[in-house]
Amino acid sequence: MKGFIAKFLCAAFCAVAALPVFGADKVAFEVSAPLTVAVGEAFRVEFALNANPDKDSFVAPSFEGFDVLAGPAVSKGSSIQIVNGSMTKSVNYTITFVLLPQSAGNVTVGPAEIAVDGTAYRTRPLAIEVVSEPGGGSGAAQPNADASAGRQSPQQSAESAARQQIAKDDILLRAIVSRTSVYKGEPLRVTFKLYERVTVVGYQDVRFPSFNGFWAQELNTDNARRQRETFNGKVYETLVAREFLLYPQQAGTLTIDPAELTAMAQVVVQSRHVDPFFGGGHDIYNVPRKVQSQRVSVTVKPLPAGAPASFSGAVGHFSMETEFPDARLAANSAATCQVRISGSGNLTFVQAPKLSLPGSFEQYNVKTTESINPSAAGISGYRQFDYPFIARAEGTYDIEPVEFSYFDPSRMEYRTLTSKPFTLEVTPDANGGGDAVVMQGRGMSKEEVRLLGQDIRFIKLGGAQLRSHRQPLLFSGLYWGVLAFVLVFFGAVYFALRKRIKDSQNAVLLRGRRASKVAVQRFRAARKYMEQQDRHAFYEEMLRALWGYVSDKLNIPVANLTKENVREELHKRGVPAEQSQRFTSIIARCDEAQYSPAASARMSDVYDEGVDLVSHIEAMVKRR
């Protein structure tokens, strides 16, 4: 009997332990196919599922515009891995079709459907560009490369052929704005999106604009997935590089400057070296291609005239909740009024509404708490304002309603939210301090009134008996010494203040002095990300620290901040070329590690080298 119970418990334990293994993975149903195919050229379309589907639940698309040569061909596979006692299982279920395009043009493969445990899953529609003849997409310049091969070395000819296989529109960087006409304070979204028709293995020299005239909030794009889109009649793989929410701070026409980056495209070229056993091979080249987004103009309309007195710049859609204390309150007791502004819009700029309290109340600083969630739809959440006060004098008081006004861009009008009227009854203090008087606009207790008779002493009567106990200070040696010291002291303070004011007006000098401090703060933040193993945030903070330091220290505007300008300015200040090369190397490593998942770089090595580089540059520039 004991053996049976032990076996039963062991089996139950194994079953419970296996539940998270087989049920933890999220079901994914995806489709894959080439971007470009030629008329008369057969190709494969694969529908991949990472789970076991229900029987006979697969529904194929209609495949309009294609002839189905073969399929559906089903392949199954599964694997189990045990690492450090943790078991994981993966399932691969693939359905393959072989299609033949009927005519040139852009054709879309519709969504397929499949069910897993009774739940239906669908793939996204997939756009495919069908060209009239093979190689017509991006290799039109190949004959020119072959014609010029006789005037170049084989290596140069191959590299030239690789470059010419990439057309001008094979890699694009576009700035897409959600709207081009907004009110002042109304948010708009700008998305920098990459369009690619070739394989890209990494990105370098990435620069995004500073958004002059806007307050910018960067959105999280870590979970952005590659999509397939049609642009200018061609099919691209797209990826969101960065996304920002912009809040215009001034009316007029504002410009979003271009973003820039260099994409490393991978090109496969037929090798000119023929192997005697295996025949010809292929050479792979990484070809840099610099791309730039277009300049975008945004029309910012001023807010209409006639704003209410309670309007403080809020733009969006908001609601207001108020919470007042109990209707009865003892004198000299503390209480709090609470106002919460919720909604979406420029919530970060919402200011505390005015709360008018009677003169006998002591009002303290407003406490602000907030919960703000930036998303592609805008900033939403709430800001809560607590108004602490102490009621000093007893009586019945009518508290004026709280008003909050905002501009609603959808209705193009101002709206005012008003709280309900509130009456507060202040009862006598239980300790006998409730009888208060109002003097010069503030409450005073009876104890404070009684003190008024004790702070003036009685005047002494009789004749004055005055005599000198010591030599008078006036015109004595000590007097002149103190006077001279005071004059010298104030003179020194005067010249020190003048120098400080002059230095504070020198923006270049201030930036140079602050450069190392700002860099140290950013290095500390990068170190925290490194300890958290947050690679993206770590490399982004390292780039900000390095670029920000050289920009402030060398007085290089952000618009002119390039590796060449940095090397030139470092050379002017006597920094050896070796240090300039180190700066270029670490920036390239950070860019590559940030934007290329395949790149490998130890965060600790990058961090140590960055800190050491800034220390060397700081020491050399100071000696200069």
Strand and helix map with partners:
Elements (H helix, E strand, L loop, with lengths): L1 H22 L5 E4 L3 E3 L4 E7 L16 E18 L2 E16 L3 E5 L3 E4 L2 E4 L3 E6 L10 H6 L6 H11 L6 E7 L3 E3 L4 E9 L2 E9 L6 E5 L8 E5 L2 E15 L3 E5 L3 E16 L3 E14 L3 E6 L9 E13 L4 E3 L2 E13 L15 E3 L3 E9 L2 E14 L3 E5 L3 E6 L4 E6 L3 E6 L9 E3 L2 E3 L1 H5 L26 H29 L1 H25 L3 H19 L9 H10 L4 H19 L7 H21 L1
Parallel strand pairs: 2-9, 11-20, 21-28, 22-30
Antiparallel strand pairs: 1-3, 3-5, 4-5, 6-9, 7-8, 10-12, 12-16, 13-18, 14-16, 15-16, 17-20, 18-19, 21-23, 23-26, 24-26, 25-26, 27-30, 28-29, 31-32
Q: Quickly count the domains.
A: 4
Query: What does the average pLDDT come to?
Result: 78
Largest sheet: 7 strands, mixed
CATH architect. name of the largest domain: Sandwich
> What is the CATH class name of the largest domain?
Mainly Beta
What is the total tally of β strands? Answer: 32
* Principal-axes shape call: extended
**Which percent bin holds the helix content?**
25-40%
Tell me the β content: 35-45%
CATH topology of the largest domain: Immunoglobulin-like
How many H/I helices? 10
Q: What class would the helix/strand composition place it in?
A: alpha+beta
Query: Over all CA atoms, what is the radius of gyration?
Result: 37 Å
Low-confidence stretches: 15-24, 135-150, 434-454
Task: Please report the distance between the alpha carbons of the first and last residues.
Answer: 89 Å
